[in-house]
Amino acid sequence: MADFNKILDAGDVDGGIINVVVEIPAGSSHKIEWNRELAVFELDRIDPQIFAKPCNYGFIPQTLDEDGDELDVLLLTEQPLPTGIFLKAKVIGVMKFVDDGEVDDKIVVVPADDRDTGNAYNSLEDLPKQLINQLEFHFSHYKDLKKAGTTVVESWGDVAEAKEVIKESIQRWKDL
After folding, report:
1. What contacts 14, CB < 8 A, 6 or more positions away?
2. Does residue 72 have a known ligand-binding role?
3. CA proximity to 89, closest of 129, 116, 58
4. Per-residue confidence of the chain (176 residues) as pLDDT tens digits?
5. Which of 28, 17, 24 is nearest to 110 (CA)?
6. Known binder of ligand: residue 3?
7. Does 121 appear as a known binding residue?
8. What pTM value is reported for the model?
9. Which residues constitute the domain of residue 56?
10. Total of domains in the chain
């Protein structure tokens, strides 16, 4: 398997098109994580089915969030994407998130070339409000059966704020 952090960088952050690697397909309750030391995907745990991911979940190569992992991505597509693929994705916002007291932001993206929607999504404002509500509900409650109240969606940020979060995470990676 390719080491995504060696063969890919974060992409064109200023241009708003980044590289994304899918860890968890939408609809899955498998918590699959990229193991940076072994350069493989690892099944961390199986969550209750009621907390299956509402969207594809992945990371941006050569980034490091404040929690010590690669910067997370919420990738919105109509159908689930398999673990291990990479794609170019358009940044449309950021979900400011805290998990057990640690900053664990999520960059919200869509495929850079989405002919199904006609590339209709360019910002969080373009998304259905119900989708934002579902994402916020999921991430506010997905750990409730184990550690209730430990996850908090603090706010949503625009494309400019998302790009700043990515740039800070790239710098953390370089400082590693």
Report:
1. 163
2. yes
3. 58
4. 899 999 999 999 999 999 999 999 999 999 999 999 999 999 999 999 999 999 999 999 999 999 999 999 999 999 999 999 999 999 999 999 999 999 999 999 999 999 999 999 999 999 999 999 999 999 999 999 888 999 999 999 999 999 999 999 999 999 98
5. 17
6. no
7. no
8. 0.97
9. 2-173
10. 1
